Amino acid sequence: MSERKPHADVASRRHLLKLGAMAAPAVITLAPASARAATSVLHCFVPMPTSVNERGEPCSGATQSSQQVAGTSDSTGMAMGHTMEQSNAHGLSVGHDKTQTGQTSGSMCYPGPDSGGLTAQQIQNGFGIDGISADKDQYDAYVAYLNKVKQEHGAGVSCLMSLDLAQG
Amino acid sequence: MNLKFRSSLSRDCVVQPVDGLFLVFFRPSGQTHLLPVQSFALLELLDENSLSVPEIPAALAARYDVEPEVGIEGVVERQLRELQAAGLVEAAT
Amino acid sequence: MTAGEALRQRGWRAMTVRVGPIDYRLATPVETVWRELSALYRDYPRDDPQHCPEFEVSVRLTNWWRRFARPQIELRADIMGPFAPLPASLGQVAFEMGMNYQLAMGLNRYLLLHASAVEREGECVLFSAESGSGKSTLAAGLAYAGWRLLGDEFALIEPRTGLARPFPRPISLKNRSIDVMMERAPAERFSRRYTGAPKGTLGYLLPPSDAISRMSEPARPRCVVFPKFQPDSTPAIRRVPVAEAHILLVASSTNYQTLGEAGFRAMANLLDTCPAYAITYPSLDAARRLVEQLWQDSGAQAPARRRHG
Known about the structure:
The complex is a heterotrimer. By secondary structure, chain A is α+β, with helices and mostly antiparallel strands. Chain A has five helices and five strands; from the N terminus they run αβββαββααα. Helix content of chain A is 28%, strand content 9%. The relative contact order of chain A is 0.26. By secondary structure, chain B is an alpha+beta fold. Helix content of chain B is 41%, strand content 28%. Classes of the chains: A alpha+beta, B alpha+beta, C alpha+beta. The interface between A and C is medium-sized, with 27 and 27 residues.
């Protein structure tokens, strides 16, 4: 587990977000293949794996917090073509080729959000979840994951796209 | 770098606004694209003018009546690259 | 001697059958396959000399000596794909696969969506999902609960009007879905079970007779639904943003690209006038209730927008 980093670093990260360091895609081209990218069905919700490493890849072995189980009434998002269980296990269509059995040596594994994903507001607020926003490395892992969603047109990409990063 | 870019939005595209985003059908390629407002604004801007990257922030600010944003050129450059890859923007000769 | 006589002499049997706006010519020299085909399509308009077949599918034995040892059939069609030979017992499966393939590859008069559809009072729900997701079972369940079946596999959207054209083929059910529907539909509407098919055990369920008798009556799409069957789940409905729905429906369409601007406009019009929902359901009964709910919800939304634009 990494040491908790102070909030000041997080504040400067938010500034970088505004300038597009973690940027929404400028264009998505629709094609028969493009919705294999399981898209999130809620208005602006990006599903996330149960845990991610610093490269934004799904991993196993996060020691914190139990994760939302698929299909319960609290689940706020569904990845198309996947159950939430599958999506938490395989990171939806993002990074699923890389790791299914666990992390490569030396990489840290951070728990994903308990809700199973992030809303637009949470992303814009630097995630802003107690216990997560204070940890810079976990924050970086989330940013890495969201960048992969952008690049690979993963679930929630149109949510990321619709974020107005110029707003606070 | 004084490379200028332009689009052919009004000539070659069919546009459908959806939920604050923009669906754009590009006739020459037959492809359909989904754009956020920032990159669609670039398409609109470049439809009437060929502009280089340094010229764009001021032109955007003037067109949309906002303050020019500091450091936005990097973002504009990235968006132009993506738009160019999709064929929606080309380098003006 | 005409070509037809020549075929009969060689044992070929053929029919033209109409399903919605599509006429197929279906032919086979295999007697057992012919009998099942005729039985399954007994209620469909057949052999109408006024209509020209748009697609042709034939199912024949791979080699002459196959008549005697483990008969195997192959599929021949106007538009050929990589079809592996099947045992002759799966002849009907070959016909159904062939008809689907022909449509998916060759139909460009309509925007084709991988979706089932049911109609009520002139409007319809489109259920868009991948194969094996349960959209056919869902359509079957609704069809035998008072809705009119428009189709279980494909939705045909007319670009000029935005209307959905019925394409009510026999409903293809797999494995457990057959058991589920046997509790809800009369036994005589079912074909026999086809075991050893690529996807397991298949069966074909004829829709209620009104689906066939009214196959030329189109319907105005009212809403688009992305269904997910999930045992033990809590039933749930969510609105799907229009942009997401576009991404999903374009991916589900085999001919969206081919139709070019007409396809773009048809899809844009469809999603401009129809709200999109995602549902998760643990049972057919739960699905029925969810569909009723979203039917009401979509009716309350701007019916004035549902005009041809």
